[in-house]
Write a structure and sequence with these properties.
DNA damage, 2 domains, 6 helices, OB fold (Dihydrolipoamide Acetyltransferase, E2P), DNA_ligase_ATP-dep_C
Length: about 300
């Protein structure tokens, strides 16, 4: 196996499956972090293999002390709770810090917790064991504290799903009890269900790359002016790109309808807000744009 393995990923599901052979966990809105522990030596890394050991020194020190005599590979999520829910933007701020002095300063300003939901190695690799077996081993391993927690597992998916919806959390993950850990794969034995929001937005323009439409510039009307709320390319089909490219010149106007941040695209064509699209998104960002927008459909 490579030095840093890529974790197993859930596939996205649009419906909640309530099955007796599954268990249910919160989908934590944070940074996916794996902990490679070898008798007190700890390496934290992201799902892409980027080191985070020095970014979260309080977690590193805790794992070093707690597992000084064990060899483990843990899988989990680094989160920062704020106002009763995991705050993705706060933990991202921590995750992007580079200098040791600033990291130390923000340990108390943006505290994080490592939520562990799987164990891949316990002296030997156990990825071929069932999820229930791995969770049972994990239960004995984790000594819960403010900074290190075991992800709760429920048999009641309906209640957990409703709880996360009522509290504004991201969603849940459905996992098959007998499922193995498929390193580096998106595998259907794990399914994620997210609580999406929807908005009807107007097209204020398009960005182009190599002469073809690449993304849509979105806005909404507030009082008597237009507000930029982000841009989106996900969900835009090849045929929709072709049609928008063909008509974008005739729809173009010289001045944008809203104040727009600078883009890097080769070309931008501004539109009058005569077209609308239904947009699916996860939440509003602190700067008032859409997080993870996806085009659902165009509307007349």
């Amino acid at each position: 196996m490579s030095t840093f393995l890529k974790p197993m990923e859930p596939v996205l599901s649009k419906e909640l499956l309530l099955k007796s052979d599954c268990v249910y966990q919160v989908k934590w809105d944070g940074i996916r972090i794996l902990a490679k522990i070898d008798k007190g030596s700890v390496l934290l890394h992201t799902r892409h293999g980027n080191l985070r050991t020095s970014i979260y020194p309080e977690i590193t020190a805790l794992l070093e002390a707690q597992y000084a005599n064990q060899t483990l590979y843990l899988d989990g999520e680094m989160i920062s709770l704020h106002k009763g829910k995991p705050d993705f933007f706060r933990v991202v701020k921590r995750d992007r810090m580079k200098t040791a002095s600033k990291i130390q300063q923000f340990i108390s300003k943006i505290p994080v917790s490592y939520i562990v939901f799987d164990v891949l190695k316990l002296d030997e690799w156990i990825t071929s064991k069932s999820l229930l077996t791995r969770l049972s081993l994990l239960q004995d391993l984790i000594q819960p504290s403010e900074k290190l927690q075991l992800c709760p597992t429920s048999e009641d998916g309906k209640t957990l799903f409703q709880y996360t919806l009522d509290h504004g959390w991201e969603g849940i993950v459905v996992k098959e009890k007998n499922g193995l850990y498929h390193i580096g794969e998106k595998h259907p034995t794990w399914k994620k269900i997210k609580h999406f929001q929807f908005i009807t937005a107007s097209l204020l323009g398009v960005t182009l790359k190599s002469g073809s439409v690449y993304s849509l510039i979105l806005g909404v009307k507030e009082d008597d002016s237009w507000k930029y709320i982000g841009r989106v390319s996900s969900g835009l089909s090849t045929e929709e790109k072709r049609i928008l490219t063909a008509y974008s010149s005739s729809l173009a106007i010289s001045t944008p309808m809203a104040k727009i941040p600078p883009f890097r695209e080769e070309e931008i064509r501004w539109f009058s807000p005569i077209m609308q699209a239904k947009i699916r998104f996860l939440e509003w960002t602190p700067d008032g744009t859409l997080r993870n927008p996806v085009i659902e459909s165009f509307q007349k």
